[in-house]
Amino acid sequence: MQTMWIGGEDVAASGGATIEVENPATEERIDDVPRGTGADVDRAVQSSARSFERWWRLPGLDRAELLHRVAANLRASTESLARMMTLEGGKPLLENRDEVEWCAGCFDYYAEIGRHERGRVIAPVREHQFNFVVKEPYGVVAAIVPWNYPLLLLCWKLAPALAAGNTVVVKPSELTPLSTLMLRGVLDVLPEGVVNLVTGYGNEAGEALVSHPDVDVVAFTGSVATGRRIAMRAAESLKKVHLELGGNDPFIVCDDVDVSIAAKGAAFATFLNMGQVCTSAERFYVFENVYEAFVEQLVDNARALRIGDPMGPDIDLGPMVSAAQRDKTEKKVAAAEGAGAKLATGGRRPERPTAGYFYEPTVLTDVSPTMELFTEETFGPIAPVMPVKDIDEACRLANQSRYGLGASIYTNNLEYAMTAASNIRAGTFWVNDPLTDNDAGPFGGMRLSGNARELGAEGLEGFRETKHIHLDYKVRAMPDWYPYKWKV
Ligand code: NAD
């Protein structure tokens, strides 16, 4: 039985209730975590509020030093954190080792840019004056995150929020809380209460955080439905809300590239982590003269993927995160087939392993842009592929979506690449390089995919308030004060 981490102490839920955490590869219980209540959330928020003043007054160099120590601790705990993420989330161990390294890199990055500047000096309107634009932290940030990249998506909030001088209360997904709770051993170099870890359900601990009067910012990653609910809740107190939501990313393949490379890139972009990536490629638009060759090669790539125990060395794909997530995927494939789509491969549970929420990577043809697969987020290993006449049709269809997280194209043709990059509404656009992130560049969505940006200078900015300080170093009466000198 695990405990939460509040004010540097290990604590159970005030009501004593727990939530069972399951291994999706075996369907066995791994452990229990506290089912946090409003009272637990209040305790965590009070702890973060108490530690705020001390944390933000810390000189930038000292704060940077501590954030680098967090990065070092993450690296030193790579194996245990990665194993726990694999146990509770089902993502292959190899990918989770990478995830821990990306977390550490993110802390190192924000340790440095957080101490680089705190605003700017602008030109004054009068002699003897200085005007400063000063950046300050908001106060207490609530970081509410999903299960698919439980530590990375948390660190994309935690590192910049702390670097900006905020304190943070973290609530992980109820499906993957164990790796987050292990962070107490990584974060204990920070002053007590600067980070608090609470576990629980979204509609209990999550909502208590969103509506808590002493939480200044809610930084959320998750589904559109939850994001909408959080935004409505937070509107009551006019809290600042960062929303990083779902996606339904298009992937265009033009006829001037090596189709075998494009198919490999496509398989990675659509099947990675069983399609449970917010920027998974979910809609494929392929120039008609290479369509058949592309489908054939994507099918070959899908069939070659090795499914199995995510701890094992010789696999590419583990299970989906939960029975519910696999059920949703099965229903989506059945609905598409009912509407006329044809299975080119997959569309079923593999014969082995017999336990666990496994599903075969799936390619669908004979699809149409009105099918739900094209209009809603899929979040499963499904690749619907349709032919297009030219780049204009590809861009038009790519934009036929209410989402705008990412988009990809395979081409060497500069005109195709730039036409798509400048016309498609998406927060990230990849040319021949699907799904790569860069700490120094912003990540986030347009339209329903969100209203914020993580990473880069933008990621830090999201956690800083702006103050304008006017300073006059010569105390004197100003000529435009009373009594007025009328000009006639
Ligand atoms: P979810 O919205 O169900 O849950 C996300 C988190 O919100 C969990 O911690 C959950 O407990 C909490 N939550 C749920 N209801 C809440 C409420 N009423 N108030 C406060 N908190 C609440 O999402 P999920 O199923 O965990 O994750 C999958 C979704 O996340 C997909 O839509 C995916 O696209 C999205 N996602 C987006 C990004 C991005 O960066 N844009 C990254 C990864 C995942």
Tally of individual helices: 16
What is the fourth-level CATH superfamily of the largest domain?
A: Aldehyde Dehydrogenase, Chain A, domain 1
| Unreliable runs | none
Whole-Å distance between the termini? 83 Å
- In terms of DSSP E residues, the strand content is 15-25%
Strand order of the largest sheet: 14-15-16-13-12-18-19
Helix fraction, binned, reads 25-40%
Largest sheet geometry: 7 strands, mixed
Mean pLDDT: 97
The CATH topology of the largest domain turns out to be: Aldehyde Dehydrogenase, Chain A, domain 1
Count of individual beta strands: 21
What is the 3D form? globular
The tally of structural domains comes to 2
CATH architecture of the largest domain: 3-Layer(aba) Sandwich
Bound molecules: nicotinamide-adenine-dinucleotide
Assigned CATH class of the largest domain: Alpha Beta
Question: SS-based structural class?
Answer: alpha/beta
Describe the structure.
The chain has 2 domains: 4-245 and 450-470, Aldehyde Dehydrogenase, Chain A, domain 1, CATH 3.40.605; 249-431, Aldehyde Dehydrogenase, Chain A, domain 2. 39% of the residues lie in helices and 21% in strands. It contains 16 helices and 21 strands. It has helices at 38-57, 60-76, 78-89, 93-114, 150-163, 177-181, 184-187, 202-211, 224-235, 259-271, 288-304, 323-338, 372-375, 391-398, 414-423, 456-461, and strands at 4-6, 9-11, 18-23, 28-34, 119-122, 129-137, 140-144, 167-171, 195-197, 217-221, 240-244, 249-253, 281-287, 342-345, 362-365, 382-388, 403-404, 406-410, 428-431, 446-447, 464-472. The model has no long low-confidence stretch (mean pLDDT 97). The structure holds nicotinamide-adenine-dinucleotide. Nicotinamide-adenine-dinucleotide binds at residues 144-148, 153, 171-174, 202-203, 206-207, 210, 221-223, 226, 229-230, 244-247, 278, 377, 379, 405, 445, 450.
